[in-house]
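Protein: Lipoprotein
Species: Flavobacterium azooxidireducens
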Amino acid sequence: MKNKILLIVCFALIGIYSCSSDDDKSDVNFINAKFNNVEQKFNIISVDKVDYIDEGYSDVIVTAKMSSDASKIIILKSEYGVTGDIIWGIYYTTDGTYYENDTESSNVTENSNGRYKGTFSGSLSSEGGGTIMITDGSFDIIYQ
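Structure follows.
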């Protein structure tokens, strides 16, 4: 009887432990923003850290896609390890049209040790003259 109770307790603890780690990850690894007032959530995230050894700095390049629409891709670029208004590149592709930033504003609050978190907004334009306004942009990404 004691062995059955011990087994039940062990399984309950394993279940509780495994659920808590999933909950911690549910609020990260996204980029949200409104594109011309239409909210979009990007949740397929890829992060590259590019080291420029001769220059003495590194960049973080985040590429994100929507699981519901693979034709929409956003790329954020900034220097690694620096916080504040530091995003220097915002690129967006939708339905085959490529947009890049004209103006941008950002507030990166975490940018090291595998965490990239902050807010952004800006105006993007295409070669064909189209413009997209990004508002209410936010991201919280954990990477290795």
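Remarks: The chain has one domain: 28-142.
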